[in-house]
Amino acid sequence: MICRKCKKRKAVINIKAYRLPLCDECYPGWFIERTKKVIKEFSLLKKEDRILTAVSGGKDSLSLWHTLCKIGYNADGLYIHLGIEGYSERSLEKCRIASEKLNRRLIVYNLKEKTGKSIPEIKDLRSKCSTCGLAKRYIMNRTALEEGYNVVATGHNLDDECASLLSTALRWDLGYFGRQDINLPEMKGFVRKVKPFAFFSEKEVLTFALLQRIDYLDEECPYAEGATSILYKEVLNIIENRSPGTKIRFYREFLLKKKEFEKFRELEELRECSICGQLTTREICAFCKTFGKLENRSY
Amino acid sequence: MICRKCKKRKAVINIKAYRLPLCDECYPGWFIERTKKVIKEFSLLKKEDRILTAVSGGKDSLSLWHTLCKIGYNADGLYIHLGIEGYSERSLEKCRIASEKLNRRLIVYNLKEKTGKSIPEIKDLRSKCSTCGLAKRYIMNRTALEEGYNVVATGHNLDDECASLLSTALRWDLGYFGRQDINLPEMKGFVRKVKPFAFFSEKEVLTFALLQRIDYLDEECPYAEGATSILYKEVLNIIENRSPGTKIRFYREFLLKKKEFEKFRELEELRECSICGQLTTREICAFCKTFGKLENRSY
């Protein structure tokens, strides 16, 4: 197959949802232009934004950081060290390499040093994955607020977003639909959160990372094994292979219809957590409840 | 594995959603009791109902007819002959056998004889499967009205219902959610429609049909090949195998939440179709538009 853009070179990827074969030279340019279009269409970022990019060391978040800098955004990185034996150190190393290459600041938040507990030490009723998600959301927001960033960008791709939608649909958790978005607006105590890669499939991001020679960690978190999100991604890809474009339609149509689900969100009154001072619906926020039991935090 | 009920015989099926292994003697009784419970819980049928059971010759609808008669309901059968070469004749034969065995009336509606067109002859913009669905819904309702039945029962199983919900969710067709139900109430011009097997998986109905020696046609409609509904059933079963009970939760939770989607239904004014007189939102109903082009119907 020949590249649709240059009409000369051999295509390395055929983006079936757009019926678009592209070569290794044309693909990265298309990828960056597509990112710009999504940013514009959903008003994700402004030139003057101070962006904190949540980086895990994987292909998605490092490609995002790379792309945002390439476009010219003011984007630093935040790495959350979860204390997972070996995996966390190897991930951090990839983020440090990216930080040096991009010449941008990398903030490292070490969960064990800050709270006394790492993710492997959490013995919570919730699963490790959901506790880790809770910790990440809290730390991203708090670090952005404290360090003067007005928006957090995450590397969630189309597969992540569709798996999350499918999981929510299988539970009919209508209120949760109301909270999912490509652009979660700023609210009192919460910075804006955006997902500029939400329309790229995992394969498209991987192809970009490989062609741009982004040095990322090709390793799943050891706790992710058997996660239902991986299963949901697999089944959605089975459907996608039969009907190319299904995932994009599923996600795009959701964004159009999501306002219908906002009324199911229970908008409770927010108050300051009595331990950390961050906004929460309870006396003590979920983060402090999980990580702050041992001692009072000084921050 | 030993049967949970008699605690003696070897189990032939392990119903994972309920963690219930049952033997060949205990299973049919459990199946019938479970049908009764679903009928009661969702007020599907009353003792005095005159039921028209839509039968296709397959395991689901013939098992349903068999079960309704066994429970003691007043249930006749309706077979819609679609004119599909060979397949329709073989299906009809199985329905005739059931009719004789149950000693109940079988109404046969021959699409070609009544309208001049069979399903294979339909060259419509819509797919054959959706035209066939339209024809069946129309004929079931009209026959029930004309022959004095107050309720139509169909053999839809849990796999059918979940595949349909998944398909609707992937399109975010919120209005369509409002129309899906285990018990579609009677409306002016439309008899009640119920699905007493909606909580049985396809495998559970198959096991019942085999153990009860129901003589059914084990053949897919030749036009169903490659239907997305088959794909959706496959992927839902991949999820079910990993997390038994997912399909039942998906369906049950939907029935609890479906009222939230009713407002998305466009409730248009109904009037009589100028050809057949059945209620429709247009001048000519969709059935007459597709099947009534050649000549005016006499019925």
Describe this structure as you would to a colleague.
Two copies of one chain form a homodimer. With 299 residues, chain A is an alpha/beta fold. Chain A folds into two domains: 27-267, HUPs (Rossmann fold, 3-Layer(aba) Sandwich); 268-299, no CATH class. Chain A is built from eleven helices and ten strands. In chain A, the strands form three sheets. In chain A, strands 5-4-3-6-8-7 form a six-stranded mixed beta sheet, with helices on both faces. In chain A, 37% of the residues are buried. The model of chain A is unreliable at 294-299 (pLDDT under 50). At the A-B interface, helix 6, helix 9 and helix 10 of A face helix 6, helix 9 and helix 10 of B.
Concise structural overview:
The first copy, chain A, has 299 residues and is an alpha/beta fold. In chain A, 43% of the residues lie in helices and 13% in strands.
